[in-house]
Amino acid sequence: METELKNNQYLFAISEKIPYYLYKKHRLLTFKGWPYKKKSKCNAEKMASSGFVYAPNKECNDVAICIICWKELEGWDSDDNPIDEHRKHSPSCILFNYSLDLDINSKHTLNTISTLLTHSFNNFMEKFFENFEKGWEKKRDEILKTLNRYYKK
Ligand SMILES: [Zn+2]
């Protein structure tokens, strides 16, 4: 179980800061070291504008996660438009209902903020359990393989 929890640690780290990440300027701060430079269509500014935070890991240095639908996208191309990619991979993300800049500001009511936070939390829980199950299935397969080997002897 420890491995599954470890695999989910990056999710916890992001989830703790969700209210803070409703602000684009705070999402932008996560993009330190983002591999796509200013002239790319998917530069840090555009990524933050499209609802993403930067969440690199050992295997992949261009992972970005939407703070509301928790869609994880990687393998960006400098010609990719982050808002189009977000829409393509997660068409039902409710961030699209608010503003294209996907930033929370004084125009937004408490009701909007609460809706966004509720969606984020529900999607986070769903993703958490999905990752957890994936980790568990992998471990179960390993155990079955070992048992099969043992009983064949
Ligand atoms: Zn989203």
Can you tell me about this structure?
This protein has 153 residues and is mainly α. The chain has helices at residues 2-7, 9-15, 18-21, 24-29, 44-49, 82-89, 110-152; strands at residues 52-54, 64-66, 72-73. Helices cover 52% and strands 5% of the residues. It has a three-stranded antiparallel β-sheet. Strand 2 and strand 3 form a beta hairpin. The structure holds zinc ion.
Per CATH, the class reads Mainly Alpha
**What is the C-alpha radius of gyration, as a whole number of Å?**
18 Å
What is the CATH superfamily? Inhibitor Of Apoptosis Protein (2mihbC-IAP-1), Chain A
Question: How would the global form be characterised?
Answer: globular
**Tell me about the biggest sheet?**
3 strands, antiparallel
What is the subunit arrangement here? single chain
Question: Key features?
Answer:
single chain; 153 residues; mainly alpha; Inhibitor Of Apoptosis Protein (2mihbC-IAP-1), Chain A; 7 helices
Please specify the SSE layout and strand pairing.
Elements: H1 2-7, H2 9-15, H3 18-21, H4 24-29, H5 44-49, E1 52-54, E2 64-66, E3 72-73, H6 82-89, H7 110-152
Antiparallel strand pairs: 1-2, 2-3
The structure holds zinc ion.
